Amino acid sequence: MLTAVLAVLAPLLAVLTLSAPAAHAASLTEVTGFGANPSNLRMYVYRPDSAPARPAVLVAVHYCTGSGPAFYSGTEFASLADRYGFLVIYPSATRSGGCFDVSSPQALKRGGGSDPVGIVSMVTYAEQHYGADPNRVYVTGASSGAMMTNVLLGDYPDVFKAGAAFSGVPFGCFATTDGSGWNSACANGTVAKTPQQWGDLVRGAYPGYSGPRPRMQLWHGTEDTTLRYPNFGEEIKQWTNVLGVSQTPASTDHPQSNWTRTRYGGTGTQAPVEAISIQGVGHTLPTAGMAARAISFFGLDSGTTQPPTEPPTPPAGACKVTYSTSTWNSGLTAAITVTNTGTEPVDGWALTFTLPAGQAITSGWNAQFSPSSGTVTARNAAYNASLAPGASATLGFQATHTGDTSAPASFSLNGATCATS
Known about the structure:
The protein is of the alpha/beta class. The chain has helices at about 1-20, 70-75, 75-85, 115-130, 145-155, 185, 195-205, 230-245, 290-300, and strands spanning about 30, 40-45, 55-60, 85-90, 135-140, 160-165, 215-220, 250-255, 260-265, 275-280, 320-330, 330-340, 345, 350-355, 360-365, 365-370, 375-380, 385, 390-400, 410-415, 415, 420. The strands form 4 sheets. It has a 10-stranded mixed sheet, with helices on both faces. Strands 15-19-12-11-22 form a 5-stranded mixed sheet, with no helix packed on it. Strands 16-17-14-20-21 form a 5-stranded antiparallel sheet, with no helix packed on it. The termini are far apart.
């Protein structure tokens, strides 16, 4: 079985090697003694010269047969870290075959042992020794690393804010009880469950947890013969259920000719769930340019490595707001569309509203939200600041609640009260 796995992963290794970025000013450093590490993982850290005193963290998890240093040199994440100032942790598996444990009962439970425990120890070490920001921790990975991305978001939803999985499978799909690390039924795309069943597997990893859940970006090639394409649809079912958003896409587009991108629960760059299907591509992701889109999904390219400055508030104008929510237990996801109904363009906007008592924002997308409760102002991102007459911007947030899930009573855009629908 191991020989077969190595053979089918050879194209992935070749692509990652060919797409290796240029050398970096900073260097990759191995860290030892980083904390609980039941499966003897190795930890490598890339701290760019541009990192601020309190950097965000990206955990970048390699494929089978790979290593932390190979994933560092063969992907674009380190060069993107140079550009945007975040810290990258590269875990390295040491077991035969170089795969991560995404199968054992220990791996599929918070604090259960095995690789997830070691990886979270690496994050804690980075927070304690590099001053990393615990509120901006993200994870990405390819193949085995994509499967681990799913696992980490299920086991530790309070640690990771979002994930990007390149050619993976749903959380729990690879589960085995016989000590094997390979699940052929899942790899072949023959394991199908309802969204509720998939979601229950994730929720079962951390029983009783009712806090916010991390956003998820999913990538898959239609010709993947290692972790077959049906797994992509099953991942979408799982994470839309976990995040409490509709399985019907809020938007569909084609960023490149052979890409189909669907977004769920929102239409912006940081929607709750984003899924990109790559037509005619096999088990070779991420190829050039895809890492940058993952960084954008995380929000690590938005200049948030330093505290944001408050922009001046432009003149008021006529507006309309559409507001909808998906709720669960003690959490909710809100989707907002604000439309300029005036006759003049709006260049920079601030949308103000008051959350009902007990609601508190934990994360948001396509805007900067402050404060997290009470009277909140959502200010535009750099890429959606301009609203021509008739144009709209979509934004949203996740929040906790204590029972009242109702919408804000009113909204104002740059001081002008908006119509609602």
